Amino acid sequence: MTIDELSRLGAGWLDGTGEAGDVVISSRVRLARNLADVPFSHQADDAQNASMVDLVLNAGQNSTQLSKAWFFDTGDSEMSDRQVLMERHLISPTLVKRGNHGGVLVGEDERFSVMINEEDHLRLQAVVSGFQPLSAWELINSIDDEFSKSFSYAFDDEWGYLTACPTNVGTGLRASLLMHLPGLVLVQSIEQVLRGVGQVGLAVRGYYGEGSEVVGNLFQISNQTTLGPSEMDIIENLQKVARQVMDYEKDARERMVKDAQAQLEDKIWRAYGLLQTARVISAQEFMNLASAVRLGVGMGILDSPEPALLNRLMIAVQPAHIKRFAGQPLEADDRDVWRATMVRERLGESDSSN
Amino acid sequence: MTIDELSRLGAGWLDGTGEAGDVVISSRVRLARNLADVPFSHQADDAQNASMVDLVLNAGQNSTQLSKAWFFDTGDSEMSDRQVLMERHLISPTLVKRGNHGGVLVGEDERFSVMINEEDHLRLQAVVSGFQPLSAWELINSIDDEFSKSFSYAFDDEWGYLTACPTNVGTGLRASLLMHLPGLVLVQSIEQVLRGVGQVGLAVRGYYGEGSEVVGNLFQISNQTTLGPSEMDIIENLQKVARQVMDYEKDARERMVKDAQAQLEDKIWRAYGLLQTARVISAQEFMNLASAVRLGVGMGILDSPEPALLNRLMIAVQPAHIKRFAGQPLEADDRDVWRATMVRERLGESDSSN
User: A73-118: per-residue pLDDT in tens?
Assistant: First the structure.
């Protein structure tokens, strides 16, 4: 699998299936793990970090699921390759920057991935489409079980799994949901709802990375605490809170239909019209228009496009992916033109298949 | 012909034919005429004004062209009927307000009209599509000739035709072109060009009536002076200046293609997308989007819709016409919804016929 081939794929977690797929785009669970008796990656020397990559790859050979995984060596790749991996949520910005003596194992359809030598020796991650954090947990737990046969993990009876950063110690587990909440944004209840989510111990952030602005009405909700509650407690608490948020979103959508149906339909249809016709479009504008279209499909106002197509475009509109699509280096201005071309083509194919 | 039937028609001057139809929507010539020995309409009493209507209708019976004309009595019609006539440029706001003892004779396809008892006893008007003020002049001159067999016009050897307002005295002729100048607006040269037009003795105003704001990048250019130059001088001067403006517009369009082709195409395609998808649209927004689409068709960026369709919509999106389309009284909010529906329907029909 080359990065180029990877950049053209869809990824399983984008297929729009799973419970409540119109509100919960994806469910993600990751585990932070470190090997006993080896310094944490940032304290290890180059030789130790290099041998960690080999260790993990060898261990993978003994695993049913990992032996078939693709490996991407971040040390032996160009910046633009690493950016493709980041845009697909397979590696972190940290690993994009550093690169050397690191990499990622990626399971078929990108259902799971194992980042090597990021902050921790291992970051195991599973992602599934829709509202199914339990499935993601079960998948990554099985990968973790396979690894644990090959390694002795850094584990303390009192503290649990030891991690490079104390905020991950204990279960090392972070479960998150990527939620699409345009109704709450439009009726201006989003801040209140998210404040409530924060008060019950969950973290909320906008779709785009660390502390950046929210685009496309997408919010990531995840557990804050890794130490204390069990893995199942964490998952169940997230599920419980998310169901409440989903109810609020449903109420908000019903309220909009009741109070301003024509304006709502207008907003949705115009967004669809613009995506089908624009010749120049920024990633941010795409995300915001796609949000309106996704809302329209979720509410039955639009028949197409499939949510899976919108999900895949959400990944494909990013800079490193656009560059692959164009097959050439691009200035930012050209990128907006190529992005518009790609969006029109994909939506056009979707239309003709209906 | 009922007002309802009329409201569904296209009108010949909207058919998009004629020279330079992508820049000059229509050419219009009107003549102000008054009968000798009858007080001007605003000085006449009701009986005199009523008999003027009869006089004109009887005179029309002796004319080949006028005997087939439809007559709409503004005294015997509802406000909303008169508004339809005004939106079609067949009667003036003055006659909409006053109504009684007035009316309009309308030739087939609305090529010409004769307003009775507006400011002057007669206002004869011809409108043709595209850049052909001479054709409009010839048409209305022939109607004028026919009338002059039945009437003795108020005419002074020194002053020419006498009119209620001194600004019309002499030829009584106002020739005007409705020009679509989006290129000059977009490259921000419009003010300079229009100032130049003003300096050579022509008047410029935005599309919507008296001193209102300009919508849809439409400008009406007409002669200021009615006294002194001959009819042919007036027409020829207008033609000469308009050709210069058309050249400037062409240059502006070429400059945009050279400097910002992607942005131009984006603007045009987005406008077309919005017209095809909007569920709520104001008349002003329609005019502005239609301007971009018209520019796109004129420049070969879009294949459809036909300029004739855009021209007809320009009339049909107005309030009194929308009300006829809906077949019921409408609040302003509902009007915007019906307008969007109508625009989508007409554009949809246009699309499928391509």
Answer: 998 888 999 999 999 999 999 899 887 889 999 999 999 999 999 9
Q: Name the band, by pLDDT with cuts 50, 70 and 90, for residue B354.
A: very low
Residues of B in contact with A281 (CB under 8 A): 266
Chain A: give the shortest CA distance to residue B281, in Å.
Answer: 9
User: Is A320 inside any structural domain?
Assistant: yes
Strand order in the sheet with B218-223: B70-73, B103-106, B112-116, B122-129, B24-33, B173-180, B218-223, B202-206
Burial of B340 (0-12, 13-18, 19+ CB in 10 A): buried
The distance of B333 to chain A (nearest Cα, Å) reads 10
Which positions 254-283 of B are in contact with A (Cβ < 8 Å)? 262-263, 265-266, 269-270, 272-274, 276-281
Q: Which domain holds residue B280?
A: 250-353
Is the Cβ–Cβ distance between A69 and A110 less than 8 Å? Answer: no
A278 contacts in chain B (CB < 8 Å): 266, 269-270, 273
The residue type found at B149 is K
What's the pLDDT band for B19 if we cut at 50, 70, 90? Answer: confident
Which of B257, B259, B280 to probe the A interface (max A CBs under 10 A)?
B280
What total of structural domains would you count in chain A? 1
Mean pLDDT of chain A: 92
Residue A199 pLDDT: 92
B314 lies in some domain? yes
Tell me if A277 and B270 make a contact (CB, 8 A cut-off): yes
**B265: in domain:** yes
pLDDT above 70 coverage of chain A, percent: 97
Its pTM stands at 0.91
Q: How many CB atoms lie within 10 A of CB B325?
A: 19
Which one, of A25, A24, A18, A29, lies nearest residue A137 by Cα?
A: A29
A333 in a domain, yes or no? Answer: yes
Q: Is A58 on the interface with B (CB under 8 A)?
A: no
ipTM: 0.88
